[in-house]
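Format notes (please read before filing issues)

Several people have asked whether sequences and C-alpha cells are stored in separate files. They are not. Every record keeps both together, in the order shown below: the sequence lines, then the C-alpha cell lines. Line labels are part of the format and must not be stripped during preprocessing.
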Amino acid sequence: MARKRTRRYQHGCLRLSPDGRRWIVKFYYAPGKQTTETLGLESEITKRQAELLRDELVRPLNLNPHRSKTEETFERYVEDVFLRMKSEVGEWRENTAKESTREIRLHLLPDLGEIKFEELTPCCAPF
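Then the structure lines:
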C-alpha cells in the first residue's frame, strides 16, 4: 500500500557563520534549492532575535499553497527541478545535457508527464 506523502514543513537551520561573527540561516526555497541568508552580526543580535528573524524568513515558504505536492506532476518536476539542477550543478557536460534532455522529453514525458507524484509507485518486476 502506497504511503501518502505529507508536505514538508521547514524551520531553517540557524547557526553562526564559520568565522563566528554573523548569524546565518539555511533553508530550501524550492525543491532541491537551498540558500543561505545572513541575519546580522552576533554582537548586535541575540540568538532569540535571530530565531525570530529566521521564522519570519521561512514562514511564507511554509504557507505557500503552490508548494502542495498534490499539484506536482512528473513533468513539472523534470522540467523545473531535475533538468535545471543537472545543468546548473554541472553534472552533465554540454553534449550529455543535450542528448539526455532530448531522450527524457521524447521517451519519459509523453507517458509519465501528467502523472502526479502521489500516483507514482516503484516497479516491482522480478528479475
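For reference, the curators noted about this record: Residues 94-112 form the longest helix (19 residues). The chain has two domains: 13-67, 70-119.
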